[in-house]
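Dig into this one:

. . .
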Amino acid sequence: MDKENIYQEYGDFIFRYLLTLTNDSQSAEELTQETFYQAIKSIDNFHHNGKAKFSTWLCSIAKNVWLQEMNREKNKHQLVNSLSDETPNFYNLEDEYFKNEDKISFYKKAQQLSEINREILYLRLLGDLSFKEIGSILGGTENWARVTFYRAKQQIRKGGENYES
């Protein structure tokens, strides 16, 4: 892959993908820049082995950049709120524990899914993308993305038991 031309070739696609995640063109532009910076730094790690398309690899970098930004914003928000609170910040430790256990359980089950099922699950739930958009990103149809997402959800509910889609 030619490092010089990847932004020209994929920049608009990644920007539109991030715009669907952020709903903010300024944020999408900043995250697009960061995505390509990260991609150029790790382009030697991309091996076209017939499984992953370059655009899919870029989307996964973009999604990770976006999630990192979301975590930064959430942490910044929590800090500002805790500093501006006059009252001490009390919370129910037991409730927090169960919320975290639910998250941990979900991600453990998601890790048992095939890579494509996990990617569709994340794009739908975390990226809030339509099935049409997911199909477009991953090179499938809208119906394929919908069915695969449904099957991935079923696997998660059944505890991650693996069956092929």
About this structure: The two ends are 31 Å apart (CA to CA). Residues 161-165 have pLDDT under 50 and may be disordered. The chain has two domains: 1-84, 97-165. The helical segments are 6-22, 25-41, 54-84, 93-111, 115-125, 131-138, 142-157.
